[in-house]
Amino acid sequence: MAKRTSFIIGSLKWVRKSLAFKLILWTGVILVVSLEVFFYLENAADRRMMINQIREEAYRLSDIIKRGTYHDMLEARSEELQKTLEIIGAQEDVRKVRIIELGRIKQSSIKEEVGEKTAKEEESCIDCHSAEEKKPLTVNCYRFFTSREGEHLLGFVNPIYNEEKCHACHSPDNEMLGVLDIVLSVQKVYDAIAANKRRSILFMLCLFLIIAISITLFILRFVNRPIQELTCGTRMITQGDLTYHIHSDSEDEIGELARSFNRMTDDLKDYQGQLIRAKEYIDNIIKSMNDSLVVAIPDGRITMVNQATMRLLRYDKEEDLLGQPWERVFSKDIPFFSGSSDLHHVTDNGSIKNLDTVCRAKEGDEIPVNLSLSVMRDANGNPQAIVLVARDMREIQTLIADLKRAYKDLQATQTKLIQSSRLAAMGELAAGIAHEVNNPVKSIINYADLLQEEIPPGTKPAEYVRGISKEGQWIVSIVKGLLSFAQADDKEFASCKIADIITTSITFINNYLAKDRIRILSSYNFDLPCIRANATQLEQVFINLLINARDALNEKYPHAHEDKVIRIEAKGIERDGAPYIRIMFKDSGTGIDEENLDKIFEPFFTTKQADKGTGLGLSIAYGIIEDHKGFISVTSTKGKGTTFTIDLPAEGSLVHASAHS
Question: Which strands form 366-377's sheet, in the order they lie side by side?
Fold first, then answer.
C-alpha cells in the first residue's frame, strides 16, 4: 500500500511538472472558458426565443379561450363556460384556466377553486398588483414561477374589458370586468434548455479530450522526445561526455535547437581542452616551483598548497593543511597576521615583499623563510584570496653563516699575517739592536773583570764590580734571546723538563717579586714527560708572564696583601688524543677587559702606560709557543684576575706523580 501511494504521489508530481500537462491544462482552461461563454450566450438566446414562443402561444391560447367563451359569458351560460374551461384545463401543458372578477374566482378549470377569493400576494396577482396605490397592470402581464412540486410554470393574465354588449348586466362605469388567467407548464422548455446545456458540456468535454490527446501526441512526438534527448545530452555533458550529439533531421525550431546544442557541445569540448591544457600548464608551473605556495581566503583559511610547501613543512597529505587557519603554518607575529587593521592594510596595498619570518613545520619546529604576499581580486576589485610565496632561507642562512665564519677566519688570518709581519720586523729590529748592544756590554764585562783583578776582594768596590759583571751577563743573555728570536733557523731545540724551566724562571725573577711582596705558589710533577723545546725561549715566555702578573697585582694592591699571589701549575693532559704538558699562570690582579682579550697577542698592543710597556712581550711569547707547536690562551675577568694557559706537546707518555710545591 505504501509503495502504491508513493508511486501515485510520484506520478502526480511528474504530471504537475510535465510540460504537456501544463500545456493541456492551459489549453483546456482557455477552451472551457471560451466554449462556456459561447454556449451561455447561445443558450440564453435559445431560452429567450423559446420563452417568446411560449408567450405568444399563451397569448394566442388566451385569446382563443376568450373568443370561444365570449358568447357563453355574454349570455351568462356559466355551466357551459365551466365545461369549456375544464376541457381546456385538461390539455397536456395547461395547468389552470381561471376567470377572476374583483378578486374572486368566477370560473376555473379546477372546479374546487370557483368562488374562492384571491389575495394580492398570490402568484397570479402580485405581478399586477405590485403596489397598493397603483391600478392593476393587466396588459400582457406574464409571470414565471415554480410550483410546490418544482414544476416550471408560465402565467398569463388577459384582461376582459366591459364592452357595450356587456352593459346589460354590468355597469358601464367599470372599464374592465375581470381577467382571464392561464397557467401553462413550461417544464419541457426548461428540460430542453437543460438538455441543451448538458449536450454543450458533453461536447466541451469531448472536444477537450480530443484536443488534450492531440496535444499530448504532438508534444510526445515533436516536443517531448527532442526535449528528452536534450535533457539526456545535458546530463551527459555534466558527466563530462562532450562527444554526445543529438540527431535531428527536423527543420523547425526544435531541430535548430538540437543543432545549436551540438555546436555548443563542440565548442565546450574545445574550451575544455584549452582549459585542461591551461590547468596542466599552471599545475606544472606550481609543481615545479622550488618556493612554497600557499593560497588563503581573506578570513584566514588555507585553500591550496603546492608540493614544495608539503616538503618544506613535512606534511604527507594536503588535507592536513586545507581548511586550516594560516596560523597553522605562519608565525602569529607576522605583521599582517597580528591584527585585522594590518590585514586591511595588506589588502589595500595589494602586496608585501621580502618579509623575513618563520614557518611552523608539522613537528612544531620553525623554519626561516623569506615571504612575499599578494592579494588576488575578483572582477569587481574585492579581495578574493591571498597568495603567499615563501622561500626556504635555511641554506641561504647557512651560506651567510659560512661567509661570516670565512670572513672572520680571513680577518684572523689577516691579523696573523699582520702579526707575523710585525714579528718579522721586530725580529730584524731586535737583531740590529742586539748587535749594537752586544759589543758595548761585552766591553763593560771585560772592564769589570779587569777591575776585579785590581780591587782587593772582600771590599765594597769588589762587590760592586761583581754586580756590574753579573748584570752585564744578564744583558748578554737577553741579547742572546733577542738574536735567537730574530734568527729562527739558529734556534736549538733539545729535550727539556718543564719543572727545570719553571724553576729557573722563578729563580731569575724571584728577587723582583719579593721586593713587591708577591708570593709564588707552584704546583707541578717532577715526573712529567720531557718536551722538545728551547729552554731559554720558554724561560723568556714564563718570565714575561710573571712580570705581567706582577704589574696587575701591584695595580690592584699597591701595598702588601695576602692575595698578592701568583700560582703556577703544570700537569699532563691529552689534546686531540696526543700527550701535552699544560702550564697555567694565575693571578688575582686587575684582569683584562673582555673586548681586549682578542688583541693582547698583537704586537705593540698594550693596556699599560707608555713608560711601562711596549706591547711586544705577549706577541713574542705567542710566536715562541707557536714555534714549539704549542698553544697559548688567556681567560680573564675584569677586577678578579687573569689566567694564561700554555699547552706544549710532550715527548713521552703521561706519568702521574706527586706534586711538588
Answer: 302-305, 292-296, 383-392, 366-377, 351-360
3-state secondary structure 201-222: HHHHHHHHHHHHHHHHHHHHHH
Confidence of residue 359 (pLDDT cuts 50, 70, 90): confident
Q: Model confidence over 593-647: pLDDT tens digits?
A: 887 777 777 765 566 554 444 445 677 788 888 888 999 999 988 888 999 999 9
Query: Are 86 and 109 a contacting pair, CB within 8 Å?
Result: yes
Per-residue pLDDT, 167: 61
Q: Read off the C-alpha cell for 69.
A: 367563451
Q: Which residues contact 154 (CB under 8 A, 6 or more apart)?
A: 54, 55, 58, 142, 143, 144, 183, 184, 185, 186
Q: Work out whether the CA dihedral 257, 262, 266, 268 comes out positive or negative.
A: positive
DSSP 382-394: -EEEEEEEEEE-H
Where residue 660 falls among pLDDT bands split at 50, 70, 90?
very low
Choose among 108, 131, 118: nearest CA to 183: 108
Check residues 426 and 354 and name the one with the higher pLDDT: 354
Nearest partner of 551 among 543, 604, 481, 593, judged by Cα: 543
621 and 549 in contact (C-beta within 8 Å)? no
Enumerate domains of the chain plus CATH numbers. 92-185 (3.30.450.290), 289-390 (3.30.450.20), 491-660 (3.30.565.10)
Asked whether residue 423 carries a pLDDT value surpassing 70, the answer given is: no
Is 588 in contact with 517 (CB distance < 8 Å)?
A: no
The 3-state DSSP class for residue 621 equals helix
222's CB contacts (< 8 A; 6+ apart) are 250, 252, 254
Whether 622 contacts 537, CB under 8 Å:
no
Alpha helices in 377-495 (DSSP H): 394-454, 460-486
Mapping DSSP to helix (H, G, I), strand (E, B) and coil, where does residue 481 land?
Answer: helix
Q: Is the CB of residue 417 less than 8 Å from the CB of residue 392?
A: no
Q: Are 367 and 394 in contact (CB under 8 A)?
A: yes
Distances (CA, A) of 516 to 513, 549, 607, 638, 639: 5, 12, 21, 22, 20
**Quick one: which of 638, 499, 649, 490 has its CA closest to 576?**
649
Which secondary structure element, helix H or strand E, spans residue 96, and what is its range? strand 94-101
Q: For residue 223, give the DSSP letter.
A: I
189, containing H or E segment:
helix 187-218
Within 10 angstroms of residue 583's Cβ, the number of other Cβ atoms is 25
- Going by their DSSP bridges, the two strands 578-587 and 531-533 should be labelled as unpaired
Strands 519-525 and 565-575: parallel
First to last CA, the chain: 117
Taking 70 as the threshold, does the pLDDT of residue 12 lie above it?
A: no
423, 623 Cβ separation under 8 angstroms = yes
User: Side chain identity at 599, as an amino acid letter?
Assistant: K
C-alpha 84/C-alpha 78 separation (Å) is 10
Rounded CA separation 501/504 (Å): 5
| pTM listed for this prediction | 0.36
Radius of gyration of the chain (CA): 71
